[in-house]
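Thread title: Can someone regenerate the structure for this chain?

I was given the following input by a collaborator and told the matching structure tokens would be attached. They weren't. Posting the sequence so someone can regenerate them.
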Amino acid sequence: MSLSRSWDLVEELQVATLAGWVELDEMHSALAKEEVHLQEGSQQQESVVRATKVVYDRNVAEVERERSALDMGCAEAVAAREEAMTALRELEGQQEALTILKMQAEEHKLELARREVAATELVEAATQHEGILRSSEARERSKQLWAPASPPVSGQTLSALGSGQR
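Best answer:
Regenerated them for you:
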């Protein structure tokens, strides 16, 4: 190979190297621009992520507050339900007691009615007996008024009559 050819090759290599350097420079410049663009995008994404995290944290805090409120409301509702069930059981017990008392009152009314009937019968019997007694007394008085006078009888005479002695 000749010297001129070698110089030509060296020049071609220099041109190619320069072209490669220019191309590499352009690529490096493009990559630098892309890196700047990516960094800007990354910063924007980080800003969006931070803002999203703030919103998310706020939403989580709100959900936790609501959950706490719901838990408290649930606990209060459970306590109120238990109180209501206790009151219901007490009311049912009172209702049973009232039913028993009503039955006892009805039994007492029936017993009172039976006793009133018995008392009425006793009053009627006493009234009849009193009437009979008065009639008997009236007859005795009437007999004494119309009967001949006789000597009074003593207790000894009556006992002698009863034993058959005179």
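The first helix runs from residue 3 to 146.
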